[in-house]
């Protein structure tokens, strides 16, 4: 069982917006602004999409945005494109000795 | 731009020790970054294994701590993972990744290497 809870799957049509949630506790998501999101296509390494809750690395489309409220972080993808179909993982720093925890992953299907 | 490349045996026998190396190019391992190992069992999610700073300071996932050693070799600009007493549950793709000082996230990842534990 993953430390952070994500929905197993979400779907949307091209052009639509979707949001993926990531729920933790006050020891991780709620306690630090060190939430990040990763995109992983089949057979590929994860790619950083959002860091520190809402910051985008250079080169990441502005269609990707992040936010946080309490113990739940969210990733929103607007203007869905076929290439966005992938698995998405959230991660957070944690005050526990584990240091870094991940969510179980969400499979995004673009219909 | 830093690049990471994992290497090591793809097959390890049960009860043996898994040993992997991550070569760092395009940057120095002595920079202000934490160097991490993350694994992903087939069809499953990501699991953080541990991290090391160039000074040798380490942090490990408590669930693996008794079996894990991460070390750094500054002369070769690389860091390594050793996982002892492996079982089939340790079969996974192993990634090395870097957490830069300015970005509290796994910014750059290696391509990953599949390690199977089987006799």
Description:
The complex is a heterodimer of chains A (111) and B (119). Chain A is mainly β. Chain A is built from no helices and nine strands. Chain A has strands at residues 9-12, 18-23, 35-40, 47-50, 64-69, 72-77, 86-93, 100-102, 106-110. In chain A, strand 7 (86-93) and strand 8 form a beta hairpin. Chain A is globular. With 119 residues, chain B is mainly β. Helix content of chain B is 0%, strand content 50%. Chain B is built from no helices and eleven strands. In chain B, strands 2, 4, 5, 6, 9, 10 and 11 form a seven-stranded mixed sheet that branches. In chain B, strands 1-3-8-7 form a four-stranded antiparallel sheet, with no helix packed on it. Chain B is globular. Chain B starts with a strand and ends with a strand. At the A-B interface, strand 7 and strand 8 of A face strand 5 and strand 10 of B.
Q: Please report the number of helical segments of chain A.
A: 0
Percent of residues in helices of chain B comes to: under 10%
The sequence of SSEs of chain A as H and E is EEEEEEEEE
Number of strands of chain B: 11
